[in-house]
């Protein structure tokens, strides 16, 4: 653990590493933590994932704050009306050339991404270096303005994967010097997390700045237990390496629910809480497992607005489970945050002056 800590710290402080710089909705039907999930029944003429994109593709009405469910255990009191951002994690199963070449699948994925301001993506599997560039071009084809960073190919097998962040440049800026892959000389992790720091596009003196740690664990039980233990050290390393940045959000496919994580060193870090949790809350397409999550340090990240959940994209398109799984075997998980930096008392915190209401 000490070697992982020291090397990752040097990497971050050295400004370094594995940095790949490229590229220039749906109704928010998420799972309420207090209610069991529902699956819309497919109807005649429903979404056909094998077909080419139709002349009149299915409608994707924009999500609104009004229909966003509130998960249990909100980390902060509600703010008054003001700019917000949505951060999400999405394991796009075997996201490679085949999936992107199917115009209906690619169109659906692009529309899902557009529902969020920052999306951490896992399981990119391709040798095509233009894959994410082509995908983000599709995301932007209807007038959106997204950009991306993508990490190196990682893994202890021949089937390597990449992480990426896709973000809405109308609302989010990335610190490109901050992008790095955590060092892991003892090979404690199957795929080392990709780290990046972001800021909202509001007055710089009050902008919410945050660091994301994108993870995808190995589901094999003995390896998974080891990885969840190691991720506790990763979290501490990234937080220390970030200097004054205390808003560190670890997100991704943990292959473990909130209960299982709570029994590991990761889950035992004081005040580090999963935002997606509760009985009957599942993030896989079959709706029987909670694999994906966002973890925040609740005393620090008071910008969290208490709204989070699982984005079930199958419902507005009347997909069957089999159809939904052609998009991915995971649904995205998301959480909503204020665009303004806040201090511990719930006030907007100015870096240039004292805290103001």
Automatic annotation (TrEMBL):
Protein's UniProt keywords contain Magnesium: no
Nuclease among keywords: yes
Keyword tags: Endonuclease, Exonuclease, Hydrolase, Nuclease
Endonuclease/exonuclease/phosphatase domain ranges (all copies): 88-272
GO molecular function, one term: exonuclease activity
Gene Ontology annotations of biological process type: DNA catabolic process
SMART domains cross-referenced by the UniProt entry: DNaseIc
Organism domain of life: Bacteria
UniProt cross-references to InterPro entries, sorted A to Z: DNase_I, Endo/exonu/phosph_ase_sf, Endo/exonuclease/phosphatase
Gene3D superfamilies: Endonuclease/exonuclease/phosphatase
Coiled-coil residue windows: none
Family: Belongs to the DNase I family.
Name of the molecule in the record: Endonuclease/Exonuclease/phosphatase family protein
């Amino acid at each position: 653990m000490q070697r992982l800590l020291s090397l990752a710290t040097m990497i971050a402080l050295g400004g370094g590493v594995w940095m790949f710089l490229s590229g220039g909705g749906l109704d928010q039907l998420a799972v309420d933590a207090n209610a069991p999930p529902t699956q819309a029944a497919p109807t005649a003429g429903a979404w056909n994932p094998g077909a080419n994109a139709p002349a009149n593709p299915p409608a994707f009405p924009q999500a609104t704050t009004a229909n966003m469910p509130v998960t249990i255990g909100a980390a902060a009191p509600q703010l008054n009306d003001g700019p917000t951002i949505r951060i999400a994690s999405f394991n796009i199963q075997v996201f490679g050339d085949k999936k992107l070449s199917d115009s209906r699948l690619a169109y659906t994925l692009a529309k899902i991404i557009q529902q969020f301001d920052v999306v951490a993506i896992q399981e990119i599997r391709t040798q095509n270096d233009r894959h994410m560039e082509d995908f983000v071009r599709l995301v932007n084809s209807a007038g959106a303005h997204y950009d991306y960073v993508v990490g190196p190919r990682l893994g202890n097998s021949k089937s390597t994967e990449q992480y990426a962040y896709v973000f809405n440049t109308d609302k989010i800026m990335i610190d490109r010097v901050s992008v790095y892959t955590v060092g892991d000389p003892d090979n404690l992790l199957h795929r080392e997390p990709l780290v990046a720091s972001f800021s909202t596009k509001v007055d710089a003196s009050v902008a919410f700045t945050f660091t994301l740690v994108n993870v995808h664990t190995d589901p094999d039980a003995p390896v998974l237990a080891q990885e969840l233990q190691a991720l506790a050290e990763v979290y501490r390393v990234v937080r220390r390496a970030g200097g004054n940045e205390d808003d560190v959000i670890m997100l991704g496919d943990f292959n473990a629910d909130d209960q299982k994580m709570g029994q590991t060193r990761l889950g035992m870090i004081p005040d580090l809480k999963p935002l997606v949790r509760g009985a009957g809350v599942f993030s896989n397409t079959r709706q029987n497992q909670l694999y994906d999550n966002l973890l925040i340090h609740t005393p620090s990240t008071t910008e969290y607005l208490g709204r989070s959940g699982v984005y079930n994209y199958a419902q507005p398109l009347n997909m069957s489970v089999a159809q939904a799984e052609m998009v991915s075997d995971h649904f995205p998980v998301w959480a909503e945050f204020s665009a303004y930096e806040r201090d511990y008392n719930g006030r907007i915190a100015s870096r240039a002056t004292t805290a103001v209401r």
